[in-house]
Amino acid sequence: MKKTLLAATLVISAFVASAQTGYVIKGQIGKLGKPAKAFLLTKLEGKEKLDSVELVNGAFTFKGSVPSPMEATLRLKHDKSIDTPGRRIKIDGMAIILGNENITITGKDSIKTATIKGSTLTDESKRVDALLGPIYGKLGALEKEFADQPEAKKQDKTYIMDLEKRAKVIEQEIFDAKINYVKQNPSKYMALMALNSTLGPGFDAIEMEKIFANISPELKSSFLGKQVAERIAHFKKTQEGVDAQDFTQPDVDGKMVKLSDYKGKYVLIDFWASWCAPCRRENPNLVKVYEQYKSKGFEILGVSMDKAADKAKWLKAITDDKLTWKQVGDLKGWENEAAAKYDVKAIPMNFLIDPSGKIIAKELRGAALEAKIKEIFDGRTK
Description:
By secondary structure, the protein is α+β, with helices and mostly antiparallel strands. The N terminus is likely disordered. The strands form four sheets. Strands 13-12-11-14-15 form a five-stranded mixed sheet, with helices on one face.
């Protein structure tokens, strides 16, 4: 069962930072001294910054400033084992939201179990964690249920489908809880983080744009705020009803193929890869629909997310899965240029384009794909 990765990003949250010009983090971890060392790791605009300071009688201090609230990690290395091969590294830490505040951290012998005060940002994170924790617990229970099953049960398609159905209900509950929090707390940094975490594959860019519009101006101008605005604007380009962006990629023989070559037809752009198990499981459904409707003008254009080193595997998968429609790919893996245009972050992913070149649907799989194509071709001929 696919694990949910959003929990980790939602363990922390924040208020907008105060008007203070810089931060001061003062720590007291027992009476630890050399060689114990504290580290502060921050990341802004893709660049990491690591500060370190030795503990003196348990005390350490970090000073600096941040342009806007950001995720940070405090870590404590208790000894020199990190430099000694074969020895277990003893490092403990905590995640915080770092703003320009005065923060104190006090613990007996560990940062991980220490008490943090003065960080309104991290305080809010704990409240949000308390809100979402029980719901994520439901997903954890499903994962445990699956792990406890005998191998035969884990291979039972009916059971897996039921498990995935129950997981989707919980995931919707998580989504609704996040959006409600965002709407009720438009000036809190955690609202921005929660909104950002909902911008996964297939999100409704138009609806998210409306919600983002109510976020406070201060948050919108933060680094994360600008990222969220950019992602929404970028994803909106693949929203249903907009013109599909043209692209050109080589087919299996090196011949260049354009999406615009399919103008005047219904074409499904299918992003997949030979190594993608869900893609391979979906291929029989594509074959079925294609064989049924290709004579009526339905086309599929497969776009590979394989790398050049895996070209042989890509070609074998095409043959093994009996994919008789055109296949293209620049063989750059996740750096595929067409995938970048369509903001493909996970596969399988597809977009249905109408004869005028507009996107009319996306993420169509299984029965949903068959129903949509049937509606287009069988419905219009009656």
